[in-house]
Amino acid sequence: MAAAGTEEVVAIEVVDLAVTPVRELNQRLHDLAGRPGPRQWRVLNSSGAHAVACGLDAAVEVEIAGHVGYYCAGMNKLATVRVRGNAGTGLAENLMSGTVVVDGAASQSAGGTGRGGLLVVHGDAAARCGISMKGIEIVVRGSIGHMGAFMAQTGCLVVCGDAGEALGDSLYEAHLYVRGKVASLGADCIEKELRPEHLEQLRSLLDRAGIDAADPSEFRRYGSARELYNFKVDNASLY
Amino acid sequence: MKFQSFLNLSGVEFQHMCGIVGLFAKSCEIEAELGGHLAAMLTQLSDRGPDSSGVAIYRNPAPSGSCKLTLFSADPDEDWNGLGADLRTAFNDCSTPVVHASHAVVAVEADAKDVEAWLKDVMPHLRVMSAGQGIELFKETGRPEQFVARFGLTGMQGSHALGHTRMATESRVTTEGSHPFSTGLDLCLVHNGSLSNHNRLRERLRREGIGFKTENDTEVAAGYLTWRLREGAVLKQALEDCLEALDGFYTFLVGTAHGFAVLRDPIACKPAVIAESEEWVAMASEWRAIAVLPGAAQARMWEPEPAVVYAWERALV
């Protein structure tokens, strides 16, 4: 007889990609949008497959027990996707909302064009991390490659390690924070003062990313010099 | 201007695939199983290049005074033993040809250029795929899985090897148009990307005496390296010269007698991952090709910086 007050046992839906095609997994996850169904998923034998858990639109949790290839968790809304390995090109591309966490490293263009949500990479992220980001928040525990936040419009990129060449090239109004060395700044990207509201933003992002080894005061802030695009102060509230 | 070029880059990224892999053994155990490990890596990248497959594997160096050649014949009934006998008559000595599908490997006690000249004269239907001391080079149309089985790759040992799965964009799907390309002794190149100035550069290199067998852009890059090395450049300098001479997108993997080197173009859109463990150094277009190696999870992994040459060479003893 079960004692009163015991926690409800949540069934975890397990999908083995060694036997189930990625297309079928993604269709089952898409079918959860606005409909009942399992809320916790575990994906086995991802073995670097492309487009795993893409286009989700439901508040589900998907844990992928291995490496993934290109475009994992792209266009995600509401869902939490955790990769227990490395991720290939285009991780969480065009993220809309929800959370994507990678335990290992991410290849190029991680979080590119993202409009919202949180992307956390616990290893390094390669070139063009956050390219053309439009509201996504990205926290990288390691370092990022060259051309990070290229043409980034809004949102936040936090790098606990170093940044490669041409950081923030052609930047608009995204906030960039780097704790380590920056190899070089891209066109129109400059260092800016780290004010109390930025420390607060950093503290909040590091907390949400589960990173307590980095002190917000150790970071430097970079932003747009606003000389390359037509910045009008009247529009500042839009960003 | 800047935005325009960014859009173009994205377009190319999605049109041009191909997969490349390389493995450099640091232990006897990996050397003994090199072909099997490379086969596993290659088949992981089958989807990136289903047209053709190829490998260059460095092993069993020919003794001093001899050279080793890999030959290709389009004739399935090629009389390889007869060729061995003819080579033995023409030169001091020749090993029994070891046949791998449409290719055969033979060691001849002579200078490679003399054997190549003899073959061109007496056996013009044979194509020299590679020449040198250690290199053996096999390539063929078809998926990697078929290639691995046909050529018995799994049973091959070696010190280092590189491989390619091709999705053709710049020239026809033929054995000759497959990668790797070798245009110099023990030198070969695999390429992911596309070059846009290869026609003009090919003409310039022809005037310098570099020969070409196809209209393929990668063969021009291999020929350029051969020319630079012939002019006295060391491999690192020859690769750095590529950054000036070649226009296009590329991740190159270059095999030499003693190791391999990796170079990405200054924009570095074409993918590349390098990993190093106590037992091996591996390079691939995607992590999944490295993940099949023993101890991959513990290996140090990174993506090579643009326009930086990474090289590993065996210490010469």
Q: Rounded to an integer, what's the Rg of chain A over CA atoms? A: 19 Å
Please bin the fraction of helical residues of chain B. Answer: 25-40%
State the helix count of chain A. Answer: 2
Kindly, what is the distance between the CA atoms of the first and last residues of chain B, rounded to a whole number of angstroms? 53 Å
- Give me the side-by-side strand order of the main sheet of chain A: 1-2-3-4-5-6-7-8-9-11-10
Order of SSEs of chain A, N→C?
EHEEEEEEEEEHE
CATH topology descriptor of chain A:
Pectate Lyase C-like
Fourth CATH level, the homologous superfamily of the largest domain in chain B: Aminohydrolase, N-terminal nucleophile (Ntn) domain
Unreliable stretches of chain A: none
CATH class annotation of the largest domain in chain B: Alpha Beta
Oligomer state of the chains in this structure:
heterodimer
Determine the strand fraction of chain B and express it as a percent band. Answer: 25-35%
Q: What is the percent of helical residues of chain A?
A: under 10%
Spatial arrangement of strands, main beta sheet of chain B: 7-2-8-1-14-13-15
CATH class category label of chain A = Mainly Beta
**Level-2 CATH architecture of the largest domain in chain B:** 4-Layer Sandwich
The general outline of chain A is: elongated
- Identify the CATH architecture of chain A: 3 Solenoid
Largest sheet of chain B: 7 strands, antiparallel
The beta-strand count of chain A equals 11
Weakly predicted, low-confidence segments of chain B: 1-16
